[in-house]
Structures are given as C-alpha cells and as structure tokens.
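REQUEST FORM: STRUCTURE PREDICTION
Request ID: SP-0412
Submitted by: Lab K.M.
Chain count: 1
Length (residues): 126
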Amino acid sequence: MLKGILFDMDGVLVDSEAYICQAAVIMFERNGLKVKPEDFTPFVGKGENAYLGGVAEKYNFKIDIESVKKQTYSIYEEIVDGHLKALPGVFKFIELAKDKQLKLAVATSADEIKMNVNLCVILGYH
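STATUS: Completed
RESULT:
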C-alpha cells in the first residue's frame, strides 16, 4: 500500500537549470573568469560542488567552493524571484496526494539552500 511520495526537485517539481547556470556564469565573471553555459553540461545533476568545481577545474581556476556557492546562490535567488515556476501539473498532483493522505517529501542533489529557495519561490513565500 502506497504511504508516501518522494519527489526529486529539478525536472520534477521545477526546471531551474537555466537559472543556476546563469547565476554560475555571472559568479565566475564577477570573480574574473569568463565561462560559457555549455561548460556546465557535464556536471548537471551532480550537485553544486561538482557543478561549480568541475567548471573551475576545466579552466584551472582556483576557487573556495563554499565561497563561490554562497555567491552563486545569492545571484540565483535574485534571478529566480518572480520567474521560477512549478512544472505543469505539480500543484494538482500534490493536491491529489494530500487528499489521499499520502506523506510527501523532496529529495535533491542540490544544496539545501537551493532547495529552500526553489520551494519558497514556487510556493510564494519569497
């Protein structure tokens, strides 16, 4: 008997890839490195450490991963505000699941801060 549903974040609840990529490109540019959106493609879905660290490594660009993640998330939060939306059908599906008294949870390879920003923006708490 089904008791709950575990949702992935990106690609299931939201599609934030373009926004995090834009934020990362801006962050690198502010730190003196010009990168291209396609540089991030091999690291999609692997978490922000690999996403940002992989591109930095490609260019042999030294970074403090915690510092650049903080910068990237700050930029990301500005970019998504008012733009990031739940994917079609998400709210209806959640409503149906709640009507059936199913437990709901979110899993993601992204850092907690990104998950929280995403949820707050799509739920209108931002």
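NOTES: The radius of gyration is 16 Å.
Reviewed by: T.R.
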